[in-house]
Amino acid sequence: MKQQKTCLIALSFGMGIGEGNYGISNYYLAKAASEQDLPVIAQWEIARVMKNNFHKTAKSIELDVGKDYINSYEVMVMAKKYMEELGYIDAVFLSQKDQLVRVKLIAKKLGIKESHKINIFIPCDSQSTQPWTRNRLVFLLREIPTYIIYYLKGCI
What is the pTM of this model? Predict the structure, then answer.
């Protein structure tokens, strides 16, 4: 059997309120990841939804003990590590479309090649515990300083 050389990397967007509620955005990201015929490396929220709702497993990027948040750069660093461990040579990126621009810049900086594109609409979650992910305008306004910070830190 030929080994799969392409994987899908899925980054979460927002977070639901309450135990086991990972938010509507992450539900749609998990659904989209589950529908692809690729092995998946996913941020933990998406990995949980994939397992619980779609009966598909993913290599999960977990939070470090004591942390309640992991940024996109940290997720992509872990995804690259898992790609190397599992022998993947390129990836398809899945995220909310406005976040995806930054994800692709990080991937380029880390040397992760994009295999091909998928276009899937992922809604913002008005109930998210992360205020910047509740609506598109607020997210886009937050992205401006985020890009500057990521650039100055050498992340993009």
Answer: 0.94
